[in-house]
# Entry
Amino acid sequence: MDPKRILFVSSMRRYGGGERWMLDTAAGLRDRGHDARLVARPGSVLAARASVRRIPLISMELRGDVDPVAMTQLAAHIRRFQPNAVCPNLDNDIRLAAAAIRTSRALRPRPARARLIPRRGSGMPLRAKRRYRLLYVFDVDRMIVNSEATKRSMLRDAPWFPEQKARVVYNGIDTAPYAALIPQRDALRRKLRATIGAPADAPVVVLVGELDERKQQRAVIEAVPQVLERFPAARVVFVGEGPDRPVIEKAIRERGLESSVTLLGFRSEIPEILVGADALVLPSRVEGFGYVLVEAMAAGIPTIASNISSIPEVVEDGVTGILHPVGDSGAIASAIQFVIANPEAARAMGDAGARVVALKFSYARMLDELENMFFVDNQQEAV
# Structure
């Protein structure tokens, strides 16, 4: 494919799955020869990580969708850069980008119109005000959604949105780092247990992600005493930081679980931790996609996750992991006990997960689909 140009736009200061997707996609398209650039707020985590990954960055204060200064600056950049596609993330960013695209074409000679292709990574309802309806119907060319569940939720809450514009593209990850680590699994298991001060043969399950009420990590704390009744040496490890940390620490103290539950905080060596663990637990009550589920599957370990949103599209119950009702600490405890008590079944789940990732959630597959959507599939939809 001939090199193309794409501009990503995000006003987020925090860093989450949507921001990670944006960086991974921009870096992947750049490595395929395209000119991928990012507009982000100065001082944001996204801007900092874009610099580390050598993604061309346009620092801009994005205060809202009706900010005339930001709109004018973005329009000027679009006119100079002339991207084939503009990909914003948040509702305000979509409206700002649409206005900037229109403004960039107000002067002659008129550049080719950049296609507006935002991404939606959660089931939150589309804004229903009239100006937003007009935006989604007439300005948006396509809408990338990260799962069939997200698409169904979006269309259910916004029946006026043209269904043919919503295209599912599953998130993808680079499986190479995990494949390289799997032969070192025994050494990484010893390393993880040494890090938390556990015996070399202790069963270890991990939770990876922001410590937040949405993730329902406290349900796992409630499950730990039941696990310990059968497996006293078992350990639970939290990796990540977030606003719910004090609540989780209090729950650990109240149950006297300090020797069985470890909070590691933020760590960068996630692939090594996953390969060294026995299972990953993701008990969320709300989840856009669950990147870490795919990472755990790539690491060849079973996943234990809540049966909500897009998670059943990622984890096949009984095949690559175990699904449980949201907030059901008894079911979480039973799933952890099963994984510990049945190492051969757990290994089979991990092997099946690795195969599924290679087929369904690979980085190359995601980039192929996005290249087609951003640069090839330019037929305008009738609305």
